[in-house]
Amino acid sequence: MDLEQLIIFLIIGLAAGWLAGLIFKGGGLGILGNMIVGVIGASLGGWIFDQFDISIGGRWLGPIVTATVGALVLLFLISLIRKKK
Question: What's the DSSP call for residue 26?
């Protein structure tokens, strides 16, 4: 992964975290936390979509949807862990 790809990955992850925070009301971690979750969720979403052989086309829309789904899953898991405490 070169520098340009890394920057694009981070931008998409940040956008996905922000979107996931808007969608997942009550389970967010604040804007900075959601952005970090978005970056991690981008990898998680890619893995999930790969496992189910799901592919969304588009230069920007597909990766943002994938990363947002991953971020939502991660926020959901974090909320489950928080409720158990």
Answer: T
CA distances from 36 to 14, 19, 22, 51, 59 (A): 7, 12, 14, 23, 22
What gap in Å lies between CA 58 and CA 35, rounded to an integer? Answer: 22
Unique residue bearing structure tokens 């956008």: 15
Q: What CA–CA distance (Å, rounded) separates 80 from 55?
A: 28
- The sign of the torsion formed by the CA atoms of 37, 38, 42, 47 equals positive
- For residue 35 the two structure tokens come to 């952005």
Q: What is the pLDDT of residues 38-62, one digit of tens each?
A: 889 999 999 999 999 998 888 889 9
Give the DSSP per-residue string, 22-59.
Answer: HHSTT---HHHHHHHHHHHHHHHHHHHHHHTT----SS
Domain limits, the chain: 3-80
Looking at residue 64, its amino acid is: I
